[in-house]
Amino acid sequence: MPELAPELIATLRTLESQYMQFRRLFRAGMTGKQQAIQELEATTTFLRNFENVFVPGLLQTPEYARCRLAEGVDQDGALDDLTSAVHVRMQRQQVLYRSGKRFHFVITEAVLRYRLCPTDVMVEQLDRLVSLSALRHIRFGVIPFAARFPVAPVHGFWIFDDQRVAVENFTAELTITRPAEVVAHLRLFAQLADAALYGTDARALLTRVLTELVDQPG
Fold this sequence. Notes:
By secondary structure, this protein is α/β, with parallel strands linked by helices. Helix content is 50%, strand content 17%. It has a domain of 138 residues: 2-Layer Sandwich (Endonuclease, Chain A), CATH 3.30.870.10. A seven-stranded mixed beta sheet has the order 1-7-6-5-2-3-4. The chain is globular and about 70 Å long. The termini are far apart.
């Protein structure tokens, strides 16, 4: 049925834009990906981000970001443009202070405890989260281990203005734009957000984990 070829080709191109393998994405390095995210964040009014494993990129310190992005070189075979990629990720954080922007971050307590970097790097990162959690235009929540999870925190995801959802797994990035799926992620985010601690309660948890980390021998 050759008459179906144009439609099938168009569908294939759509799928290729929605599912992108990291090895293909990072062939020319990781800086380009950071710049693409920066452009998306610049046009986004309300960004929601749930993370169950690591600190959100917009809240990372330079050294924590370096540890995270280094995995792209080690695991995904990315061109080693680590210094440039970290620089752009830090530039991205300027969006946090632009007027008219709203941010809602929700993480699990596991994010605060996973050893994805050296102890001194994690101490600095937790200290930064304490400071950022006090900013008025950023809503920052932590779901403690003791909380009853409304849904299993299977993976992290970003929601851009109720229109687009980004999800990453070990090997690829998935972009979701179907309205029904976006609505489903909005519902999931709201449920997870309701289970989180905010304000002084969140900072108390952050400070407790930070103190435990500093006091650990060695």
